[in-house]
Each structure stands twice: as structure tokens, then as C-alpha cells.
UniProtKB/TrEMBL annotation, chain A:
Localisation: Cell membrane; Membrane
KW Cell division (keyword) present: no
Enzyme class per UniProt: translocase
Membrane association type: Multi-pass membrane protein
Record's protein name: cytochrome-c oxidase
Native source species: Vreelandella andesensis
Keywords assigned by UniProt, alphabetized: Membrane, Translocase, Transmembrane, Transmembrane helix
């Protein structure tokens, strides 16, 4: 295990990725502030995705030509593990905001406790959750909220099932039953797509029949930032799993050496766990 | 006071580690010129890029500080508009924190961690290059906000909502996006450092054999991965409040401006330890070297660092004592903050005990390290004063706070960085820095830093508020001294640049083991360290190390 750690010579992808990300951010900023700049933003987004694809292609090629040893495999494992931890903390910020608002900010606005001075600003405000009537009447709250036992429950079942099907696919890969793996992985990708479609339907309903919008006070804000970022992660996860499916079709991955596949599984399970948290704290309670 | 001459036999302990040979295979023709720096995956080159970037930004941030000090030289408004003054205080803080101090430590980590643990490079070399090149993109964007309509960020480096949302200039969206890029850079850099430390150590090197600089960086990297995403979350909420009509920080919609402060300081307090823990590591390397004694209490240093890091998650609201927290919260955060003095005290006493009966010499790295111990401790004590909630009601947002955090960041973090640079320059360049000029830099810096920041304690205790371009007449003398000190300190840093440039170009040749008392693995490779080191892992023999 000595002496074999692969240090790539030089690479043009990192600098190009930096520039692409910069273009994407500047384009987004110009779009948001001056309502123009869409082309730059799109060029940025497409460049980021292209460079990522090319970068991963290099890594796959190096891996398949046997340049990576067990130590490199451990580097990838630590890297992916800590990356997921950073994602956990990203969602923790939004969950923290939700808990803070529900436990402290809104009761205080309603006059609870010695620190409820903000009650003086809006004397008629009554604290409740979901917040249908925000303190200032200029802010329209949601008209009603989703029952957790309809679409959200369906989506919960879909995502939990998808974690199971993914595990079956992974076990099949480990046993070398690639055909079984393809079937179950295809099922997982389809379940991911179903989730995204249903979430899209829910967003449509939210805007058109429930009055849940980004502007609908703190309920709308926390609802959309939590479900929105989760939804983005499902989309990314589905794309990742689809690329794993493509790689299996191309004959990639050994029975005992397939960290790319494993990392995708870790990511998908993480996204699943976040959803369970969302289901409990955004929809049920 | 003559510098201690390097030892004649530089590899007395050569059996403890064998430097990897400089093999040619596998390294195809390197690109030349600028492309070499754009495409590099080498930890030493990327480390140098980080350090150079940080030095440039140190001067940019320093210029902003000098605009502030020039305006405050006398009472009354004379040089700049209050609006521009606010942009200068804000940008000074942002640049120094995110573009000067943090990249400097990451640069040192890049250079030294692989050398100190016997690794051929960082664990993920391409990602390493990406982490660096995000920084020029991020800070070009951030600095460009100064030229946008409505000016740049003007709400302080803590960017409290609603100043940074409802009442912010239009450029704030760009500020947020720039900070997102810098945050991605920090997270990826930290992931790389953790993977390197956990996975790339030389065979035989246990965790408790690692030099403290490696330990402190391991813990710092954990803090970065834990809190930079929270910063990303809070600025995303700002972005939504500004551009999409959400009410996160607006009580009219059921949100809360205080929520911003909680989220910000949940990031912000670990962030200040991110800027000091690697400094502890550097000082813990330098003091034993120049006291010619092993570090006293190695294990307790490790545990104290971990304790400080864990406590840093439980103290954030001590920045918010006057926003109207419940009494229980005031008490909890007051006591938890005071608790940090215990592990910090362990460290200070360990450094002092390391010095006790050592054969001490006072080369420039040691001078900076000793100044660090004394002046950082002063900053720590003023921090304890601020931790007392009822007293903080008086000190809050005064120049006392400014004095406090500049004592821990300038003679704290920045002195430690400079100590580290003087300490490791022989390893990087193969030459000793000019000791006479370095000592001149040290004495000018220490006079400048105290002249600048010591009077601020008194101005603050007397009630001078921070972030205001004008002040009452009774603060005139203190401010005069601070401004003279600031310009003197700023000018002194040109000596630092001179020393570094001279050292890169030439100077007295340094052997592999450049300092007589230096024991860590980096001193077993030649000076200057060849581009590729430890391609064959060295065998680490722990008998010469701790315990």
C-alpha cells in the first residue's frame, strides 16, 4: 500500500469551474438586481455542468485505468462523508429558523413572556401556527395549508421506497447481478422523477389554491426554502443516479470497487432522511 | 541577539524519517508561465498562491482601515462621506476575515500539513486548486460592489438584517453571491484538509503523534464544515428577503430580525475560532523550537483545542446580550462563554511552562510567537470582561469591543501567521529571511499594534461607539494616537514584504533542519523543499516525538 498515491499532474477543470461559477453568480446577480443578464447566467449554468461532467470523466478514466489505490478510495470516502455533513448543516440552518420562529418569535409577537415587547407594535396579533394572519395586515398569509396525509404522505412513501429499491440495486451490484441492479436502479430513478412531479403539482396547488407563496409571511418563507432546497437536492440526486445507471449500462463498476455508486447511494439516503424531517416538522406538526 | 546559527549536522535525526526521493516519473512536462499557476495541483504551489493572495488582500483591507483611521484622526467630518465611511468599515472587516486571515491559514495548511505528516500531496489535489481559484473570483466580485450604483456593503461585516436587507444598497445581492463563492471555497478546502489528515499520514504516525499545527487545523476544518453552510443558509435567506419577498427577518410577516443574529453568530462565533486555532498550532510549533524543549502538555493541548471548538457552538448569543434575550439565555451564554477561559488558560500555561528553564533564543519567529502569547492573552481577558452580560450592556458596540477583537486578531492571528512565515520561509525558499530586517519589522509592528489598539480600550470604556465617522471631543486624544499607530503599523508591513521578497531572491542558505530545536517531519526534507516530497511515504518513528 506504499508509494502509489495518485497525484494528478495538472488539470484545466478547476480554473474553468471557478470561472464558470463566477459567470453563473454574476449573471444571477445582474438578473436579480437589474432584471437582465439571463444569457450570462445560462452560460454560467451550462458551463458549470459541462465542466463538472468533464472533470468527473477524467476521474472515471483514471479510476478505470487502475491509477487509484485503496488509500485514494478512502480519500473519496472521507471527502464525500464530510461533504454530506456540510449539507446536513446547510439544512440545519433552515430547520433552526423554523424551530426558532415557531418556538420563540411568533409567541413573543403574540405577547408571551417578558420580552414580548413587539406585542406593542401589533396589539391585535394572535400567535398561532400555521401563521394564517401575519402581524402586519399588508402581508397576506396562506389561506389554508396542506394535509400531510395526502400528497406529502404519498411523497414520503415514494422516497422511503426509493431508498429501499436503491439498497436492493446496490446489493445486486455487490453480488455481480448487474441485470437486477439495472432494474432496481431504474425503478429508483423513476421514483425520484415521480417525487419531483408530485412536488411540482404541490407547488402549483400552493400558489393557485392554497395562497401559500413566497410572500405569504414566515409560513410561506420557511415552507418554500425547506421544500425548495430539498427538491433541488432530489433533482440533483436523480441526475446522479441516472448517470450511475448509464455507467452500469456501459459496464462500469466492479463488484467490490464502485465508490461512485456508493457515494450516490449515500447522497440519496441523505436526501431521503431530510425529507422525513421535512414531513414531520413542515407538514405533520 | 544574534540569530542562532543553524546546526551543522542538519539531519541528526534522519532515522526518524526519510524524505522521499525526487522522482521524475509520472510528472509530465509542466506547463510554463501563468498556466503553471492556473492548472497546478501541487500543494506547495497552491499554498504559495493562497499566501500571495492573502498578502495582497491584507494590504487592500489595510488600505480600507487607513481610510477609516484617517477620517477618525480628528473629530468632525473631513475626508469621506459617512456613507463611504460605512463601506470602508464593512469592507475592511470582510476582506480581512474572509480574504486575508482565512486564506493565509489555508495557505500555511497547504504548504505544511503534507510535509508535517509525510504525505505526497493533499488528498484531493484538483479540488485543492479549485478551492483556491474560487477566491480571486469571489473577492473580485465583492470589491466590484464598491463601484456599483448605491455603493458597496455599508452595514458592517456582521451585516445585520434589516440593515442588510430592507435598507441595503442594491449591490447587496452581489455581496451575497460573492460570499457564497468564498464559502464554497472554504468548505471544499476544509474537506480536503480533513481527508488529508485522516488518510494521508505516514505509516506509523498516530493521531497523537501529529504536530499541533496539524491537530489545530483538523479541528478548524471540522468547524469550517459545520458552520460555513450555516452562513450559506443565512445569506440565502437574506437573498430571498431582498429579491423574493419572503419574511425571514421581517416581523411584519411573522419573521424576526433577531433570527438573523442567531444564525449569523452560530456561524460567527466558531468563525472567530477558525481564525485563531491554527494560530495556536503555529505558536505551539515555534515556542518548543526556540526554547529547545518539547512542548509541555501535548495531550492537554489537543484536548483543550477540541474543548474550545466544542464550546464555540454553545456561546454564540454572547454577541447579542442587548437584543432582548430571555434572562435564562443571558445567564447560559454568559457562563458558557466564561468556561472557554479554562481550555484557553490551559494553552497559555502550557506555552509558558514550555518556556520555563528552556534555552531560549529570540529569532524573529520566536519574537512574534512570544508577542502572540502576551497580547493574545490581553485580548482574551478583555473578552472575559465582555462575557459578563451586565457589563456588556455598557461595553456593547463601543470601541472596547473593537479593541478586544483586534487584540485577538492582529497580534493574535496575524502575528501568528507572520511568525509562521518567518519560521517556514527557510523551508520554502532555502534561504533564511534577513534577521535584522525581520526584527525591525517585529519591533515596528509591536509598537504600531499597541499604539493603535490599546487606546481604543479607554475610548470604548468612556463610551465611544464603533462604526461612527465622527465623535465627541473627549475622545480626540485616544483617536489621534490610534490613527498615528495605524499608519505606523501599516507602513511597517512594507518591511515584511521586503523581507519576503529578499528571502525568495536570495539570502543565507538554510539546511534541511533550519532551526536547531525544530523536530517535526518537515525539517527532514531538503530546504528548499523540492516540488514533490514523500512520494514514497517516510517511516515515522515516534521515539523522538511526544512522550
Amino acid at each position: 500500500m506504499s508509494g502509489g498515491y495518485y497525484v494528478p499532474a495538472t488539470s484545466r477543470w478547476p480554473i474553468l469551474a471557478s470561472l464558470a461559477l463566477g459567470a453563473m453568480m454574476v449573471g444571477t446577480g445582474i438578473k436579480l438586481v437589474y432584471d437582465t443578464g439571463t444569457p450570462l447566467m445560462l452560460i454560467g449554468v451550462i458551463s458549470v455542468m459541462t465542466v463538472m461532467g468533464l472533470w468527473f470523466r477524467d476521474v472515471i478514466r483514471e479510476s478505470m485505468s487502475g491509477l487509484y489505490d485503496a488509500q485514494m478510495d478512502r480519500s473519496f470516502r472521507w471527502g464525500m462523508g464530510w461533504f454530506i455533513f456540510s449539507e446536513v448543516m446547510f439544512f440545519a440552518a433552515f430547520f433552526g429558523a423554523l424551530f426558532y420562529v415557531r418556538t420563540f418569535a411568533i409567541p413573543w409577537l403574540g405577547g408571551e413572556g417578558a420580552k414580548g415587547v413587539s406585542a406593542l407594535l401589533w396589539p391585535e396579533f394572535v400567535a398561532h401556527w400555521p401563521l394564517f394572519n401575519p402581524p402586519d395586515s399588508a402581508v397576506l398569509g396562506p389561506e389554508r395549508v396542506f394535509s400531510p396525509w395526502q400528497l406529502p404522505l404519498v411523497n414520503t412513501l415514494i422516497l422511503v421506497t426509493s431508498s429501499i429499491t436503491l439498497t436492493v440495486a446496490h446489493e445486486a451490484l455487490k453480488l455481480g447481478e448487474r441485470k437486477t441492479c439495472k432494474h432496481w436502479l431504474t425503478g429508483t430513478v423513476l421514483l425520484g422523477c415521480c417525487f419531483i412531479v408530485i412536488q411540482g403539482v404541490e407547488y402549483y396547488e400552493a400558489y393557485h389554491h392554497y395562497g401559500i407563496t413566497l410572500e405569504a409571511g414566515i409560513f410561506g418563507a420557511t415552507f418554500f426554502i425547506l421544500t425548495g432546497f430539498h427538491g433541488v437536492h432530489v433533482i440533483v440526486g436523480t441526475i446522479i443516479l441516472a448517470s450511475m445507471l448509464a455507467r452500469i449500462w456501459k459496464g462500469h463498476f466492479a463488484n467490490d470497487q464502485h465508490f461512485g455508486f456508493e457515494a450516490s447511494c449515500w447522497y440519496w439516503h441523505f436526501v431521503d432522511v431530510v425529507w422525513v424531517g421535512l414531513f414531520i416538522f413542515v407538514y405533520v406538526f | 541577539m544574534a540569530p542562532k546559527l543553524p546546526p551543522q549536522h542538519s539531519l541528526q535525526h534522519s532515522s526518524t524519517a526519510v524524505a522521499g526521493g525526487h522522482s521524475q516519473h509520472g510528472h509530465a512536462a509542466q506547463p510554463k508561465g501563468i498556466m503553471r499557476w492556473l492548472l497546478t495541483t501541487n500543494h506547495k504551489e497552491i499554498g504559495s498562491l493562497y499566501l500571495i493572495f492573502s498578502l495582497v488582500m491584507f494590504f487592500v483591507g489595510g488600505m480600507f482601515a487607513l481610510v477609516v483611521r484617517a477620517e477618525l484622526f480628528q473629530p468632525g467630518l473631513q475626508l469621506v462621506e459617512p456613507e463611504f465611511f460605512n463601506q470602508m468599515t464593512t469592507m475592511h472587516g470582510l476582506i480581512m476575515v474572509f480574504a486575508a486571515v482565512m486564506p493565509a491559514f489555508t495557505g500555511l495548511a497547504n504548504w505544511m500539513i503534507p510535509l508535517q505528516i509525510g504525505a505526497p500531496d493533499m488528498a484531493l489535489p484538483r479540488l485543492n486548486n479549485f478551492s483556491f481559484w474560487l477566491l480571486p473570483v469571489a473577492f473580485t466580485l465583492l470589491l466590484s460592489t464598491l463601484f456599483m450604483p448605491g455603493g458597496g456593503p455599508n452595514f458592517g461585516w456582521t451585516f445585520y438584517a434589516p440593515l442588510s436587507t430592507t435598507y441595503a444598497p442594491p449591490s447587496t445581492t452581489f455581496f451575497i453571491l460573492a460570499l457564497h463563492i468564498a464559502g464554497i471555497s472554504s468548505i471544499l478546502g476544509a474537506i480536503n484538509i480533513i481527508a488529508t489528515i485522516l488518510n494521508m499520514r505516514a505509516p506509523g504516525m498516530r493521531m497523537m503523534d501529529m504536530p499541533l499545527f496539524v491537530w489545530t487545523w483538523l479541528i478548524t476544518a471540522f468547524l469550517l464544515i459545520a458552520v460555513m453552510p450555516v452562513l450559506a443558509g443565512v445569506i440565502t435567506m437574506m437573498l430571498m428577503d431582498i429579491n423574493f419577498g419572503t419574511s425571514f427577518f421581517d416581523a411584519a410577516g411573522g419573521g424576526d430580525p433577531v433570527l438573523f443574529q442567531h444564525l449569523f453568530w452560530f456561524f460567527g462565533h466558531p468563525e472567530v475560532y477558525i481564525m485563531i486555532l491554527p494560530a495556536f498550532g503555529i505558536v505551539s510549533a515555534i515556542i518548543p523550537t526556540f526554547a529547545r524543549k518539547p512542548l509541555f502538555g501535548y495531550a492537554s493541548m489537543v484536548y483543550a483545542t477540541a474543548a474550545i471548538a466544542l464550546l464555540s457552538f454553545l456561546v454564540w448569543a454572547h454577541h447579542m446580550f442587548i437584543v432582548g434575550l430571555p434572562l435564562t439565555a443571558e445567564l447560559f451564554f454568559m457562563y458558557s462563554t466564561m468556561l472557554i477561559a479554562v481550555p484557553t488558560g490551559v494553552k497559555v500555561f502550557n506555552w509558558v511552562t514550555t518556556l520555563f528553564r528552556g534555552s531560549i533564543s529570540f529569532e524573529s519567529p520566536m519574537l512574534f510567537a512570544l508577542a502572540f502569547v502576551v497580547l493574545f492573552t490581553i485580548g482574551g481577558f478583555s473578552g472575559l470582561m465582555l462575557a459578563i452580560a451586565p457589563a456588556d450592556f455598557q461595553y456593547h458596540d463601543t470601541y472596547f469591543v473593537v479593541a478586544h477583537f483586534h487584540y485577538v486578531l492582529v497580534p493574535g492571528a496575524i502575528f501568528a501567521i507572520m511568525a509562521g512565515v518567518y519560521y517556514w520561509l527557510p523551508k520554502w525558499t532555502g534561504h533564511y529571511p534577513n534577521e535584522r530586517l525581520a526584527q525591525c519589522h517585529f519591533w515596528c509592528s509591536i509598537i504600531g499594534v499597541n499604539l493603535t489598539f490599546f487606546p481604543m480600550h479607554f475610548a470604548g470604556l468612556a463610551g465611544m461607539p464603533r462604526r461612527i465617522p465622527d465623535y465627541a471631543l473627549q475622545f480626540a486624544d485616544f483617536n489621534l494616537l490610534s490613527s498615528i499607530g495605524a499608519f505606523f503599523f501599516g507602513a511597517s508591513q512594507l518591511i515584511f514584504v521586503l523581507v519576503v521578497v529578499m528571502c525568495v531572491r536570495g539570502g543565507k542558505k538554510a539546511p534541511a533542519k533550519a532551526w536547531e530545536g525544530a523536530e517535526d517531519l518537515e525539517w527532514s526534507v531538503p530546504s528548499p523543499a523540492p516540488l514533490h516530497t514523500f512520494e514514497t511515504p517516510p517511516v515515522f518513528n515516534r521515539t523522538h516525538h511526544h512522550d
